[in-house]
Amino acid sequence: MIVLLPLGLWLGHGALEKLALVFPLLLVLSAELLNSAIEAVLDKVSPEFSELAGRAKDMGSAAVLLLLVMVALSWGLILLPRWI
């Protein structure tokens, strides 16, 4: 995020491209914060192993992964045509 956010602002041509490069990064950060909150609450409420708690943690991690794929796709679709 520290590297990609300024890079996205620099590489984007126009406001829409800059938004398309930076906004997914902010979504990943938001999802990661929510995932951390879910994990903290589940660890506090249910310190012993629970299958449902494990599934909730896995789903939060999967949401972060899907958003990281969205970052890769948006960056690739915007920047790859310039270099090919």
Q: What would you note in describing this structure?
A:
The protein is an all-alpha fold and 84 residues long. Helices cover 87% and strands 0% of the residues. Helix 2 runs antiparallel to helix 3 (51-83). 6% of the residues are buried. The mean pLDDT is 93.
Number of H/I helices: 3
**Overall form:** elongated
Task: Specify the biggest β-sheet.
Answer: none
The protein's oligomeric status is: single chain
Instruction: Find the CATH topology.
Output: Helix Hairpins
**SSE order, as H and E?**
HHH
Q: For the terminal residues, how far apart are their CA atoms?
A: 25 Å
Number of strands: 0
Mean pLDDT: 93
Low-confidence stretches are none
* CATH architecture tag: Orthogonal Bundle
Helix content: over 70%
CATH class (first level) name? Mainly Alpha
**Domains, number:** 1
Radius of gyration: 17 Å
Tell me the β content: under 5%
User: What structural class do helix, strand and pairing data support?
Assistant: mainly alpha
